[in-house]
Amino acid sequence: MVLKGAYCLCIYIAVDAEIDVGALGRIRFPRGRYIYVGSAMNGLEARVRRHRNTSRGIYRAIHWHIDYLLKEPEVSIESIYIQETDRREECVIASAISELGKPVKGFGCSDCRCFSHLFMVEEFTFLTKMGLETWRHLSPPIM
Predict the structure, then answer these.
(1) Which value, in Å, is the radius of gyration of the alpha carbons in the chain?
(2) Does the pLDDT of residue 140 top 70, yes or no?
(3) 87 within 8 A of 7, measured Cβ to Cβ
(4) Cβ neighbours of residue 50 under 8 Å, at least 6 residues apart?
(5) Where are the extended beta strands (E) located within the chain?
(6) Residue 134 bridge partners (DSSP)
(7) Percent share of the chain, pLDDT over 90
(8) CA 141 to CA 106: how far, in whole Å?
(9) Whose C-alpha in 33, 79, 123, 139 is 20 to 30 A from the C-alpha of 94?
(10) CB-side exposure of 22: number of CA atoms within 13 Å?
């Protein structure tokens, strides 16, 4: 059975960085914690694995805004939270996180009307209070 749903990548940027993010141009990312909200309606595990592999330098193709960020050596995924669902919930989750974090304008939301799907936050633990679960079923990276 293929898992479907929304996910939150909990990202740490170790140093202040300026990164070219495709059509968004060069964006300044202050050092800190960020949450990226995405959806995977055709395979949650495969999408999460792809992001992990991009972050580790194993997968190098650039398709989405998040790929530009994850490929940088000073950027790492600290944890991943998911919400299994057959409905597209990423915009609902992004809206809730926007109340607690600082959005990066236009990031990850070119296919919806949201202001952003990437937010700088103080911490990640509030995601469980929002009903998301820690993703514990990650298979090893594909080499």
Answers:
(1) 14
(2) no
(3) no
(4) 59
(5) 5-13, 17-20, 26-29, 32-40, 75-84, 102-103, 118-121, 133-134
(6) 81
(7) 76
(8) 29
(9) 139
(10) 15
Which residue from 74, 56, 65 is spatially nearest to 27, judged by alpha carbons?
65
Q: Residue 2 pLDDT more than 80?
A: yes
d(CA 134, CA 10) in angstroms, rounded, equals 11
DSSP state of 22: G
Q: What is the pLDDT of residues 68-116, one digit of tens each?
A: 999 999 999 999 999 999 999 999 999 999 999 999 999 999 989 999 9
Taking residue 101's Cβ as centre, other Cβ atoms within 10 Å add up to 19
Residue with tokens 């679960």: 133
